[in-house]
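Notes from hallway chat w/ T.B., transcribed later so I don't forget. T.B. wanted the structure written out for a chain they're using in a teaching module, and asked if we could keep both sequence and structure tokens in one place. Agreed to drop them here.
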Amino acid sequence: MGFKTWFLSALGVLVILAVAAALYALGVAPGHLAVSAPFLLVVVFIAAVWGRGAAVVAALTSAPVFNYLIVPPPYSFSTPTPDEGFFVISLLAVALIVGSWKERTLRVEY
């Protein structure tokens, strides 16, 4: 992986952490799975703009951040439930599908 891929992956991690900080600042109540929507939107955005690699890193970063901030008990890591496992698999699937679509589109254009 080149410098650009590493840079975009690191930037994706920072964006996920910024979303988590925003949710924390807004006082989002732990335990609500609806809070997963911002993480999903960020992964879709990163996949569409920066590509598959950065999106997969963002999806994998979202899982522990979501577990730490949202899953009860808050502000501690817990064993993932099947719903949370499905969430991680969904994030990875979205990252791979949208990221691959973006890269194929770029190959066809050039």
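Follow-up for T.B.: The CA atoms of residues 67 and 78 lie 7 Å apart. Might be a good example for the class.
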